[in-house]
Amino acid sequence: MSSQPVPPGRNPTELLTLQLRALQLIYQVQSKQTELLENILTQQERMLTTHQQHTSSEVKVVDFNMPFFALVGMLVKVSLASIPAALILAVILATILFVLSALLGALGILVGGLGGG
Questions:
Q1: Is 12 within 8 Å of 6 (Cβ atoms)?
Q2: Does residue 76 share a domain with residue 47?
Q3: Against a cut of 0.70, is the pTM above it?
């Protein structure tokens, strides 16, 4: 490792003292910047909370203007997207009906077996 030459008239202790002062100044500046940023953040949070309180209002759609063929295209996409949902609901319904009929059939056999004894 090569050593840095010491400027004339300065010893290493003086250089370390100067470096320490420079680092202290940097730390002070960073502390002030951090404090300013925290103040800005709290101001923004206050503004957001007051803005959210005052902007809660209802929206009513009065008119909807859409070209006919764009509307047709959107409706075709909606109908195609509903096919998988319909299939899933059909499977769920069939499963429920199967389980229900199996339970009623088991209950009917059990009730018939007790009465016929």
A1: yes
A2: no
A3: no
